[in-house]
Amino acid sequence: MKLTLHKKTKKFILAILLFLLLFTGIQTYSTVNEEKIVTEENTIFEYSCQPSVNYTVNIRPNELYTETVLEEDGYYSKLLLDHIQADFAVEYQGSDSTPINIQYQVLATVNGYQGQTDNKNIYWTKSFPLTQEKTLEVEGDSWRGEEQINFALGDYDALAVRAKEISGMKVTNEVIVELLGTITATTATEEVAIPFSSNLQIPLLEDVFQVTKTAGEALQGSVTEREEVLVHFDRTKVSLLTVLMLLCIAAMPVLMFVIKEPDELTILRRKNKGLIKNYGSRMVAMREIPDLEYSRYYQVYSIKDMIKIADEMQKPILYIPDESTAVRNNELFIISENSLYLWNSA
């Protein structure tokens, strides 16, 4: 089967191919010669720090408890309390080995406050060091520190009572035993300070108390460095443009030399078939047109005029089928008494 296209259609497609060829050529040239500088952010150091705290409550021997060491998350008697053991720990991990400076200390802070835990109004506070401030200098990509503290509550209860006598304030009292510190890692570009803390909160002047521990969230971070990088052309884009350009080049000779223009007979046949398809409801196919003498003979200008005449006279449009052109001699007729209306589609 031969491929055919109308001459105007071929010219239109050829114009599009030429435009695409020109466009892809310009785009390919500009892309290949395009160089731009982009800023990239590179991670040069990453770190994490996880503080934690655990505790046990030590009570005096008595007839109620078989053990003298009580585990976490319980209710404890102030009268039976001997001391509380707090075990603080800090774990640091870095992506590279660097000089590390660690400073930390354990403090006990007594507060007089009103309000709920999430919305406290602290009226007075007093802090006491439970350890000396410690400073360590190490080098590496990890470090773990531990600190164990034993403390009783008697002195802090006495302070709360004395504070009430001095101030006259009826407030709620608590003691917070807290490990506070900072890890400073010296990277290639800057010093990174990583603060950490964990604590135990205990109510004062209560016969029965609970211990609330706050271990703190794991701290994670990174040190980044911005770098300007020269980026060459986009190879994927150039490849796609080249493929499109080659397709255009290959399509042009096919369109010009392989796909032929239809001959006149084919054009007429297509035109007549289109007429039959579009206006078939108004048309009647005849084996022959009666050979009569017509007193009036009209040459109609267009198919639309033929439709108007057929509607006004309420007559069908007649034609004789033909194998080569679909309509013999390309002629359509309307016969009205002794008048003949004829239109030639050629």
Number of domains: 3
Q: Given the C-alpha coordinates, what overall shape results?
A: elongated
Order of helices and strands: HEEEEEEHEEEEEHHEEHEEEEE
Derived from helix and strand composition plus strand pairing, the structural class reads alpha+beta
Low-confidence stretches: none
Helix content: 25-40%
- Calculate the terminal CA-CA distance, rounded to whole Å: 25 Å
Largest sheet: 9 strands, antiparallel
Question: How many beta-strand segments?
Answer: 18
Rg over C-alpha atoms, rounded to the nearest angstrom: 49 Å
Q: What is the mean pLDDT?
A: 87
Report the portion of residues in β strands: over 45%
Tally of DSSP helical segments: 5
Describe the fold and architecture:
With 346 residues, the chain is of the alpha+beta class. The protein has 3 domains: 7-35 and 232-258; 43-226, no CATH class; 264-344, no CATH class. It is built from 5 helices and 18 strands. Helix 1 (7-32) packs antiparallel against helix 3.
SSE topology sketch:
Layout: H1 7-32, E1 36-59, E2 69-70, E3 76-77, E4 81-116, E5 119-129, E6 134-151, H2 154-167, E7 172-186, E8 191-203, E9 208-209, E10 212-214, E11 219-231, H3 235-258, H4 264-279, E12 283-285, E13 296-299, H5 303-313, E14 317-319, E15 321-322, E16 326-327, E17 331-336, E18 339-344
Parallel strand pairs: 12-14, 13-18
Antiparallel strand pairs: 1-2, 1-4, 1-11, 3-9, 4-5, 4-6, 4-7, 7-8, 8-10, 15-16, 17-18
